[in-house]
Amino acid sequence: MVTNFRNIIYLISHSLINKHYSFMKKSFFSNFKYDGPAGLVVYLVALPLCLGIALASTGRPDLLFSGIIAGMIGGIVVGGFSGSPLGVSGPAAGLVVIVLTALKTLGSFEALLLAIMLAGVIQLTAGYLKAGVIGYYFPSSVIKGMLAAIGITLILKEIPHALGYDKDFMGDETDLVQMDGHNTFTEIYYAFIYNSPGAIIICAVSLGLLILFEMPFMKKIALFKFLPGALFVVLIGALLNYLFMQSVPQFVLSGEHLVQLPVASNAEEFFGFFKFPDFSAISNPQVYITAFTLAIVASLETLLCVEATDKLDPYKRTTPTNRELKAQGIGNIVSGLIGGLPITQVIVRSSANIGAGGKTKLATITHGTILLLSAILIPAYLNYIPLASLAAILLMVGYKLSRVSLYRSMFKLGWEQFLPFIVTIIAILSSDLLKGIGVGMIVSIYFILRKSYKNSFHYTKVKDHSKETVTLTLAEEVTFLNKVSLNEALINLKDRSTVIIDGSKSKNIDYDVLEIIHDFKTHASKLKHIHVETINIPEVIQTAKH
Predict the structure, then answer these.
(1) Alpha helices by DSSP H, 129-215
(2) Residue 266 backbone zone (phi > 0: left; psi -120 to 50: alpha; other: beta)
(3) Which residues neighbour 102 within 8 Å (Cβ) at sequence distance 6 or greater?
(4) Contact 35, 359 (CB under 8 A)
(5) What is the C-alpha to C-alpha distance for residues 420 and 149, in angstroms, rounded to an integer?
C-alpha cells in the first residue's frame, strides 16, 4: 500500500514539474517579488480557515490536519495544474454540512476519503467533457452580488473573533445558522457580552497596522514592499499576548483563542496525521452518492469563484474553466488519497491574494508550500498566533469585497443590473451561497426575458391620408420568447392598413415566430383587409408549403 502510494505521488509530482517547469522558469524571478508576499498573506488567511473548516467538517480534533493537507494540495497541486492566475483552492466552508453528514452515513473517515477521490475522478471527467462552459453563464450582476454578500458575511462572522468570542470555527463564511447553534447575529450579541479585552486590543492594533500598510507612503518603503502587513500583524499580535502574560494576566489569550495546529513530537507521529482511503468501501452505494454530491457542489462553487476572481483580477484575464475542473479533480484525487478534505476554489483566499498584489499562480503555489513547511518545521510557534489578529486580516478582506463604491457603481447601471445584485446579496445572507445564487439567477433571467420581450422588433408607423403603413423590423435573434409581443403588435393593427415585416437584420428566427407570421399573413390579415409584405423571410414561404 505504501509503495503504491509513493509511486502515485511520484507520477503526479513528475507530471506537475514537467508540465509547469517552463512557467516556473519564466515567472519565478520576475514575479516572486509580488507573488512571494501575496503567498505569505494567503497562507496567514488560509491557516486558521483550514483548521476551522476541518474541525467543523469532522467534529474530531484528531482530524484537524486533514484541513492542512487540503490546503497544501489546493496550493501546490491544484495551483500547479490550474489555469487560474489568481484563484486559490483549499477546504471550503460550503462543503462542511455535506462532509459532516457523509461521515455519519459512511461510518468512517477512510470511507469518506474514497468518496473524495471518486468526486475528483468525476470532476476530471467533467473537465474533459467540457462541462466548465457552465461557468460562463452566470450574469455579472449575480457574481458581484455574491462577492458583496461574502464580504458582508465575512465581516459579520469575524466580529466575534475580533472580540475574543471563539465558540464558532474561524472560516464559517457562508450560512446564517452556525455550527454552535447560534446564528450570525446572536453570535455577535454574545460576543459583546462575553468579550475579551485582550482580543479587542490585539484586533484594534492589528486593524490599525493593516490600515497603515494601505497608505501610499508605506508602499514606498523597500522593506514593506516585500514583507506584507499581515506578517507584522501576526507577529505583533503574538508579542502583545506575551506582554499580557507578563503584566496583565487577565488579558491573556489561550486555548481556543489561539491557532491550534496539531504538533507532532517525531516524524512517525507526523506521518500518522496522513490517512488513506478504505478501498473495501467501494461496494457501498452511499460512497457514490457522496462522491456525486461533492463533485457537483464543489464544481459549482469553483466555477462561481473562478468567475468572481476573474472579475477582481486587475489584468482582466480569463480562466479556462474546463482546465480548472480538471485541476480540481486531480486535487481531490490526491487529497482523498493522503487524508485531506474535499477542495474547491475559494473566494476569500483568492481575494486576499488579489488584495496582497499577487500576479500569477506562483502565489497560490507559494502559500501551499509555506503551509507544508510550517506544518513540518514550526507548528508549535504557529500556535502562539491569536485568532483576533487573523480576524483583523479577514475583516479587511471582507471590507474590500463589499466596498461602498461597488454599490454605487451597480446602482448607476440601472435597475436591470442593480436589482439582481441586491437580491443576490439578501438571498445569500438569509440562506447560503448556492441558494442565494439561484435566487439571483431567477431575478436576472426575468430581466433578460423582459428585455428580450421588449426588443424583439422595431416598430415604425407612417400615415398617408387615410392609409396607415406599419414596418416591423425584426431583431437579430427572434425566439419563441418574442411570440407574445409580435402577436400583440399584429393583432392591434388597424383595418385596411399595410404591414411590412422586415427580417433582413435577423440571423435567426424561431419556427414559432415564423408560424405566427404565416398564420397572420394567410388568415387573420384577410379578415381585417390588411396587406402584408415580408422582406427576407424565406422561411415563411417554405413553412406555408407544409
Answers:
(1) 140-162, 184-193, 197-213
(2) beta
(3) 112, 115, 286, 290, 293, 294
(4) yes
(5) 12
Q: Which residues contact 53 (CB under 8 A, 6 or more apart)?
A: 67, 91, 92, 93, 96, 169, 171, 341
Return the H-helix or E-strand segment holding 464: strand 457-464
Nearest to 155 by CA among 84, 100, 203: 203
Residue type, 503: G
First CA to last CA across the chain, in angstroms?
Answer: 68
Collapsing DSSP to helix, strand or coil, 467 comes out as: strand
Distance, in Å, from the CA atom of 141 to the CA atom of 106, rounded to the nearest integer, reads 39
Angle at 361 between CA 129 and CA 329, to 5 degrees: 30
Contact partners, residue 423, CB within 8 Å, separation at least 6: 145, 439, 440, 443
Q: In sequence order, what DSSP letters do the residues of 223-269 get, joined into one string?
A: HHHHS-HHHHHHHHHHHHHHHHHHH-GGG---GGGB------SSHHH
CA distances from 174 to 43, 86, 152, 497 (A): 20, 21, 10, 60
Could you tell me which residue, 238 or 265, shows the higher pLDDT?
A: 238
Average pLDDT score over residue span 188-216: 94
Separation of alpha carbons 428 and 101, rounded Å: 22
Name the one residue in this structure whose C-alpha cell is 446564517. 176
Residue with cell 496583565: 248
Report the 10 Å Cβ neighbour count for 193: 8
Calpha distance 364→76 (Å, rounded): 7
Q: What is the pTM of this model?
A: 0.84
Max Cα distance, the chain (Å): 100
Q: What is the pLDDT of residues 282-315, one digit of tens each?
A: 999 999 999 999 999 999 999 999 999 999 999 9
